[in-house]
């Protein structure tokens, strides 16, 4: 496809299924690393604290050489749309909750005062990352949307308080991220937790769906049937399916231009 539109930017965040758990050896056959024209800055890349983008997305830029659904989305944007390139600002870490009472040592909460240390805040890390990238690029980044996946670590079996507060907590995180990029209606594309996961929580899922149903710019992809490589994480088939559905959703919502993939229909809240 001829590339004639200026590069676009996505911000991405979440816990393990965003961080990626599928080995690079199980990438779809049509995806090759390094991913050319994917300018990439994440909490794993060199000099990310200075807002330095890698010129391409390499295996060494991933979390322990593992990939998540978002990599499939990036590939599709580069191969199937008219944009000259893609910039990605990503912060992810497995086993991290929103609520400070949830599972994990670090949290996405907007209630920074409830954390023992600023180092425990993933939102502050994401804030610094985005601000440094914007400063380094002199604000010349066209942020189109945010990709997100999280929820397992706020399950009621670990912390009932985290599950009870999930709706308010997630809403606050999304509001914060939109304020961070100065776009109160920034589109957010996300997905539910697989019902096969041992960390699936129906109360958390209900909160996700409620928030997406109320906000026309939150698009929650139903991943209840997602298959797993272990007790918690999407396998290669489901990660690819999820990433492809995210790509189609971006086009359906007119967030990006391009030709949709021919995929099975899935519920999007």
How would you characterize the overall build of this protein?
Residues 11-248 form the Sialate O-acetylesterase domain. With 269 residues, the chain is α/β, with parallel strands linked by helices. It has one domain: Rossmann fold (3-Layer(aba) Sandwich), CATH 3.40.50.1110. The protein is built from 7 helices and 9 strands, in the order E-H-E-E-E-E-H-E-H-E-H-H-E-H-E-H. The strands form 2 sheets. It has a 7-stranded mixed β-sheet with strand order 4-3-6-1-7-8-9, with helices on both faces. It has a two-stranded antiparallel ribbon with strand order 2-5. Strand 8 (188-191), helix 6 and strand 9 form a beta-alpha-beta unit. Helix 5 crosses helix 6. The longest helix has 17 residues, at 236-252. 49% of the residues are buried. The mean pLDDT is 97.
N-to-C order of helices and strands: EHEEEEHEHEHHEHEH
| Tally of individual helices | 7
CATH superfamily: SGNH hydrolase
Domain count: 1
Helix content: 25-40%
CATH C-level category = Alpha Beta
Strand sequence of the main sheet, in spatial order?
Answer: 4-3-6-1-7-8-9
Number of strands: 9
Mean pLDDT: 97
For the report, how would you describe the main beta sheet?
A: 7 strands, mixed
Radius of gyration: 17 Å
Give the CATH topology: Rossmann fold
The gross shape turns out to be: globular
Structural class per helix/strand content? alpha/beta
């Amino acid at each position: 496809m001829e590339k004639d539109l200026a590069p676009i930017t996505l911000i991405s965040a979440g816990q393990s299924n965003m961080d990626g758990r599928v080995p690079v050896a199980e990438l779809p056959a049509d995806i090759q690393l390094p991913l050319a024209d994917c300018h990439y800055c994440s909490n794993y890349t060199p000099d990310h604290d200075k807002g330095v983008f890698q010129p391409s997305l390499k295996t060494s830029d991933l979390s322990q050489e593992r990939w998540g659904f978002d990599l499939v989305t990036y590939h599709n944007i580069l191969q199937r749309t008219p944009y000259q390139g893609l910039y990605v600002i990503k912060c992810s870490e497995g086993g991290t909750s929103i609520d400070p009472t949830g599972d994990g040592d670090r949290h996405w909460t907007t209630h920074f005062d409830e954390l023992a240390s600023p180092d425990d805040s993933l939102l502050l890390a994401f804030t610094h990352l985005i601000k440094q990238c914007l400063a380094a690029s002199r604000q010349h980044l066209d942020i189109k949307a945010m990709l997100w996946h999280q929820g397992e670590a706020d399950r009621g079996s670990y912390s009932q308080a985290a599950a009870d507060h999930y709706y308010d907590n997630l809403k606050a995180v999304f509001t914060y991220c939109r304020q961070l990029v100065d776009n109160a209606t920034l589109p957010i594309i996300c997905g539910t937790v697989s019902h096969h996961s041992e960390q699936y929580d129906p109360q958390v899922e209900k909160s996700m769906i409620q928030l997406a149903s109320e906000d026309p710019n939150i698009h929650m992809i139903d991943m209840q049937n997602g298959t797993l490589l272990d007790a918690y994480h999407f396998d290669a088939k489901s990660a690819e399916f999820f990433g492809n559905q995210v790509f189609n959703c971006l086009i359906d919502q007119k967030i990006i231009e391009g030709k949709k993939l021919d995929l099975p229909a899935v519920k999007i809240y």
